[in-house]
């Protein structure tokens, strides 16, 4: 009998060992985890409170966390625990199928990714696999193959995450005294993504990264993560480990929101550590505009040149190809 739990794993170890042999070391203070932190926790029920003071305080808390941390977590967000649990169970089923089938079956418009095929050194390698799915694919039954039970759950989950992302974006826009038209007009099913992540148990080192340090190239990301932990973010030039909270969703600011807000809100570098004992699962929703959307600052004088999302993504891809690393917003500073 074939053990599908083993054959489901992508050949991460062989891909990693094919990279030039180099000792992974980092004595830089930025690489040392100083402490475990609890992100600012915000109760979103206060946004619809009849008490205006409660709503104002909630908006202020969201804006403050977006400026100081670039990350926060939310409860009473409108996505039921039963829907989250069902989505997680269906996600695990998909990742348990044999690797060859995941890589070749065309599931979700060939959205399957694993490891890092562009890595040229161990420091660029990610011990993970994912389905990076355009929202336009989620309603297309042909993309699910044999996983019909995933279809209805994914549609409900994506719709709920989309609604939440727009609500939070609207709050952040409102806080700066602007209108929310940019997000309503330019962010839709053809531009946004849902990413199903799995970080398999890693047998070779506790220092292996499940996901390399990066900032998100979007307006806003909403993340469901399980109880395992492993997410770390940069705070005050030091890495801090984020303590998992099964009742909360994590929200983080992306590069586009930092540019649009003229650096009021911060897109913060983050990474995921691999775990030698257990698999880790997460699901991320990315609020993105169309490729031809111009990203300009909401106020003057602007810190950044105006740029399109398409140009930004192209520059990121060119930098990663040349150097192995994303440069991002500094490329567009005036």
TrEMBL record:
Pfam families recorded: 2OG-FeII_Oxy, DIOX_N
PROSITE patterns per the UniProt record, alphabetical: FE2OG_OXY
Annotated keywords: Dioxygenase, Iron, Metal-binding, Oxidoreductase
EC number assigned by the record: 1.14.11.13
Reactions catalysed: gibberellin A1 + 2-oxoglutarate + O2 = gibberellin A8 + succinate + CO2
Enzyme kind, highest EC tier: oxidoreductase
Fe2OG dioxygenase domain: residues covered: 190-289
GO BP annotations listed: gibberellin metabolic process
One MF term in the entry's GO annotations: gibberellin 2-beta-dioxygenase activity
Record Gene3D superfamilies: B-lactam Antibiotic, Isopenicillin N Synthase, Chain
InterPro entries tied to this protein: DIOX_N, IPNS-like_FE2OG_OXY, IPNS-like_sf, Iron_ascorbate_oxido_reductase, Oxoglu/Fe-dep_dioxygenase_dom
Protein family (similarity comment): Belongs to the iron/ascorbate-dependent oxidoreductase family. GA2OX subfamily.
Protein name: gibberellin 2beta-dioxygenase
Species this chain originates from: Aquilegia coerulea (Rocky mountain columbine)
Higher taxonomy: Eukaryota, Viridiplantae, Streptophyta, Embryophyta, Tracheophyta
């Amino acid at each position: 009998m074939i053990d599908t739990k083993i054959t489901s794993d992508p050949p991460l170890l062989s891909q990693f060992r094919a990279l030039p042999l180099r000792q992974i070391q980092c004595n830089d203070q930025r690489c040392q985890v100083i402490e475990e932190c609890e992100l600012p926790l915000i109760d979103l029920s206060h946004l619809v409170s009849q008490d205006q003071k409660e709503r104002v305080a909630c908006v202020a808390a969201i804006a403050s966390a977006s400026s100081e941390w670039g990350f926060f977590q939310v409860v009473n967000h409108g996505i039921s625990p039963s829907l989250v649990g069902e989505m997680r169970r269906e996600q695990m089923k998909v990742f348990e199928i044999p690797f060859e089938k995941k890589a070749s079956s065309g599931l979700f418009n060939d959205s399957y990714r694993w490891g890092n095929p562009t890595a040229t050194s161990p420091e660029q390698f990610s011990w993970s696999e994912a389905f990076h799915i355009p929202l336009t694919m989620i309603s297309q039954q042909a993309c699910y193959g044999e996983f019909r039970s995933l279809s209805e759950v994914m549609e409900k989950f994506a719709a709920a995450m989309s609604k939440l992302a727009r609500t939070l974006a609207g709050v952040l826009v409102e806080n700066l005294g602007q209108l929310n038209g940019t997000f309503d007009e330019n962010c839709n099913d053809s531009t946004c993504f849902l990413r199903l992540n799995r970080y398999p148990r890693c047998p070779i080192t506790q220092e292996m990264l499940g996901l390399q340090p990066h900032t998100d190239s979007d307006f806003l990301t909403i993340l469901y993560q399980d109880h395992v932990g492993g997410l770390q973010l940069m705070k005050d030039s030091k890495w801090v480990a984020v303590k998992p909270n099964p009742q909360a969703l994590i929200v983080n600011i992306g590069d586009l929101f930092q540019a649009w807000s003229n650096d009021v809100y911060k897109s913060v570098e983050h990474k995921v550590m691999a775990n030698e004992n257990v698999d880790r699962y997460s699901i991320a929703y990315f609020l993105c505009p169309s490729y031809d959307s111009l990203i300009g600052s909401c106020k003057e004088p602007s810190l950044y040149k105006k740029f399109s999302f398409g140009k930004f993504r192209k520059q990121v891809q060119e930098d990663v190809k040349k150097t192995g690393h994303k440069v991002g917003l500094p490329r567009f500073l005036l």
